[in-house]
Amino acid sequence: MQFGVFTVGDVTPDPTTGRVPTEAERIKAMVTIAQKAEEVGLDVFATGEHHNEPFVPSSPTTLLGFVAARTSRLVLSTATTLITTNDPVRIAEEYAMLQHLADGRVDLTLGRGNTAPVYPWFGQDIRQGINLAVENYALLHRLWREHVVDWQGRFRTPLQGFTSTPRPLDGVPPFVWHGSIRSPEIAEQAAYYGDGFFANHIFWPAEHTQRMVGLYRQRFEHYGHGSADQAVVGLGGQVFVRANSQDAVREFRPYFDNAPVYGHGPSLEEFSAQTPLTVGSPQQVIERTLGFREYIGDYQRQLFLIDHAGLPLKTVLEQLDILGEQVVPVLRREFDALRPAHVPDAPTHASLRAARDAATATTEAATTAAGAGATP
Amino acid sequence: MSTRRVVAVSAGLSQPSSTRLLADRLAATTTAALTRGRHPAAGPSATGPDVEVEVVELRRHAHEIVDAMLTGFAPAPLRTVLDAVGGADGLIAVTPVFSASYSGLFKSFFDVLDRDALTGTPVLLGATGGSARHSLVLEHALRPLFAHLRALVVPTAVFAAPEDWAGGEGALAERIERAGAELAAQVALHEPAAAPDPFALTTSFEQLLARD
Fold first, then answer.
1. Is the Cβ of A268 closer than 8 Å to some Cβ of chain B?
2. Considering only CB atoms, which chain B residues are within 8 Å of A263?
3. Segment Disordered: which positions (chain A) (predicted)?
């Protein structure tokens, strides 16, 4: 099972000091967090994509390319890449390029984005959100798999004789997760292609995630990619950990109370009961996170949000130390012990390449055997 | 005949509340008209269906309504109420008049209600106020709101000013009786409602792809 962190990349004042990091500080902090994630033994770093203040990550492959050069093992991902307002041709090219530079340590999570003006700023209509996600991904999927593409759709200019370059590393496209909070069409899309489904899971009641993942698993089996429990599921989670749970609550409360998204609404205690937010000791985070599989089933990737709401970099790095030393090793052991043998790990470039090679060998063997049989 | 569910939503804040009192009276006449079968579809001798009535006081859910606005999801107790309203065969919606319109709490509740939750639902409107001069609030504020929600609003809406509770000519009781009968007739005409499920898949992926 993979563990990692995902960042929104928000520039938020620290509510305890009023200090606002500069964009340069925030961007460099994201790099430091990614490097630290690898150092403490996590597997994945994922960045959001935004085109409005107060967020800095408008160019995910620039950030991830830089992180790729400074890490050696970390899988670089997104949370999420906007499949609605980005040109699918540019996604195909940029992430294939990143894949080469990072020696295959790349996958991506596609999402629609929820900031209404971003659609018109990029020439699109938010009311076409689902249709954009469907058409753009259908093109992206072909661009990574077919050398020369002729294509015509509703939302972008047609293509005749187009080849997206560079070609995916080893001819193996990056693995794709589809993220959605409550659009069943996106769970259906992930199932149709046999791709992964990533549930944001934070900010929302667990029942939403349970319904969406359940639908994705059922449809994954329907489309013949394997049994429902072999579908590839990733989950978000939001934690703040200190050795003592009282210390965690005391320290995190001002950040919670003033946070974008949910601040000035429910109390920390109410929100912790209503959503997967866990503020407490390492043991509490371990127990809560292990509980996710009781309503999601065995899953492949767990990403934590730990650097939002104005938390200073020093605190975030301490969180990573605690996660790496006291939380993730236990979770890894416990999840692995609980997972049946037929449930796969999260796909990596190496596993996808091996699967492709095995499939090719089987086909060739069949062709050779048929050819031999036909020889008089 | 199957059980019909009627939900009455009261946005009254004081306790006791005349808004709640009006909601209760409207619910009682609606129930009586339904169970007596006194509506054109059933005929005079038919017996009506069993009726379940739930009265919701928004005051009890005021904090949850604000939380739902801020977080984007309803806490569990409010979720239960929203599901009940979405699955109701008939809705009675009653608000006090604040600053010449429905109260902010009343509007906020319908703001956090799921889209399409009231589409085609028979609705009876009521309002209370300190003066009968506000009675047209039903027509210029409430009726357009429920038209937007695509609800089926019955013709008679009931306004209760302080003097109405004294009875007399054009009495409140008669208007309540008429309004309840109108709602009962609509509830009886419609098939029992099922609450819409936002997570239900209504299209296959082949259909989504073909839309292009």
1. no
2. 70
3. 342-376
